[in-house]
């Protein structure tokens, strides 16, 4: 299909990775070689709240472009999907044991444990989930300045999914030179490491909201700090107005630097089938909410609802047809559970 621009006004942009996913959910059938990656899941989080976006990412010539047809029909602009001649190993394997336990290694063993035939497409697979982020050498998936359509620079809000250090260093500055006033960024595991401590202030200096996980932020602060709120305060001092930390036990910690406020926003409790992409869906929902309302707390509630809906089924498009009434009902219920600390 044509990945060209639709020549319409771009209000949102989402930058991230596109994968070919091999998922063993908590329950339900395995999903073998399907559309995946943080980019389309963040797009679904935005879509649940009525938003569409220009999508920015890289694929090689072997990536099935027909997988984008539904995204295109939902109104997403695909001009930022760069098809490169450079080979990209886009395979991504995940085996979810429960909500808080996901295995990224040893796919042969996990398929065998579930009595499933091993996909030949995964032969030779090695997870790159914790690849070292280079300070100098881009990855095949790294976004280049030339990848960004000019119309995307006029967007009002941008979310940057986990990609790599160089992409995260470059993209905020490029978008700030345009008309973009809101930039949210989700941490990449590779640089959430003590060895990158000196680089973190530069990464966060132009960010509106920084979204991370308890595991990643604890790894970054190893030997420096143990209190999550203090960690959020320190990161906020580098530039972000808001720092959001997802914890397995208490949901989302939301720190507001300018107001010096702290809230907890629970995970919406629902039947979870497949946690793949829930963090990305949260980010998409948060972006939609903050751009519309400029209220970080309301935006975090919207993000948590988006994450809960995505987790109730398996696959990028599971949540696409969710009834607006269900979304609003969950929003009202969850707002009652928010707590200021």
Characterize the main sheet.
Answer: 10 strands, mixed
| CATH-assigned homologous superfamily | Ribokinase
How many domains make up the coordinates?
1
| Shape field | globular
Q: Which architecture does the CATH hierarchy give at level 2?
A: 3-Layer(aba) Sandwich
CATH topology: UDP-N-acetylmuramoyl-L-alanine:D-glutamate ligase
Q: What is the strand tally?
A: 14
Strand order of the largest sheet: 5-4-1-8-9-10-11-12-13-14
User: How many whole angstroms does the radius of gyration measure?
Assistant: 19 Å
Question: What's the layout of helices and strands?
Answer:
Layout: E1 12-15, E2 19-24, E3 31-36, H1 38-47, E4 54-60, H2 69-73, E5 77-84, E6 91-98, E7 101-103, H3 107-113, E8 157-160, H4 165-177, E9 182-186, H5 200-204, E10 209-213, H6 214-220, H7 228-237, E11 242-247, E12 251-256, E13 261-265, H8 278-293, H9 296-311, H10 324-335, E14 339-340
Parallel strand pairs: 1-4, 1-8, 2-6, 4-5, 8-9, 9-10, 10-11
Antiparallel strand pairs: 2-3, 6-7, 11-12, 12-13, 13-14
């Amino acid at each position: 299909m044509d990945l060209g621009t639709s020549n319409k006004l771009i209000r949102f942009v989402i930058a991230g990775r596109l994968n070919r996913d091999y998922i063993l959910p908590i329950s339900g059938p395995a999903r073998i070689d399907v559309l995946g990656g943080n980019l389309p899941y963040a797009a679904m989080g935005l879509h649940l709240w009525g938003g569409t976006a220009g999508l920015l990412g890289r694929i090689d010539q072997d990536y099935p472009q027909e997988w984008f047809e539904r995204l295109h029909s939902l109104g997403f602009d695909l001009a930022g999907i760069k098809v490169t001649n450079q080979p990209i190993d886009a395979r991504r394997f995940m085996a979810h044991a429960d909500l808080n336990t996901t295995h990224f290694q040893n796919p042969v063993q996990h398929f065998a444990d579930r009595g499933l035939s091993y996909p030949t497409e995964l032969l030779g697979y090695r997870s790159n989930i914790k690849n070292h982020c280079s300070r100098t050498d881009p990855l095949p998936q790294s976004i280049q300045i030339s990848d960004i359509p000019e119309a995307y620079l006029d967007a009002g809000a941008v979310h940057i999914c986990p990609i790599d250090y160089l992409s995260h260093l470059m993209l905020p500055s490029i978008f700030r030179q345009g008309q973009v006033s809101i930039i949210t960024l989700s941490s990449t595991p590779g640089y959430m490491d003590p060895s990158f401590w000196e680089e973190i202030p530069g990464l966060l200096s132009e960010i509106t909201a920084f979204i991370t996980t308890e595991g990643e932020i604890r790894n970054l602060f190893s030997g420096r700090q143990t209190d999550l709120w203090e960690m959020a305060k320190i990161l906020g001092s580098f530039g972000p107005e808001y720092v959001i930390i997802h914890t397995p036990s208490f949901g989302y910690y939301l720190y507001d630097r300018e107001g010096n406020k702290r809230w907890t926003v629970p995970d919406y409790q629902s039947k979870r089938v497949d946690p793949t992409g829930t963090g990305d869906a949260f980010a998409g929902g948060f972006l939609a909410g903050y751009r519309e309302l400029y209220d970080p707390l309301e935006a975090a509630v919207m993000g948590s609802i988006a994450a809960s809906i995505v987790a109730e089924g398996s696959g990028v498009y599971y949540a696409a047809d969710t009834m607006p009434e269900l979304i609003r009902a969950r929003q009202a219920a969850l707002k009652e559970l928010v707590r200021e600390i």
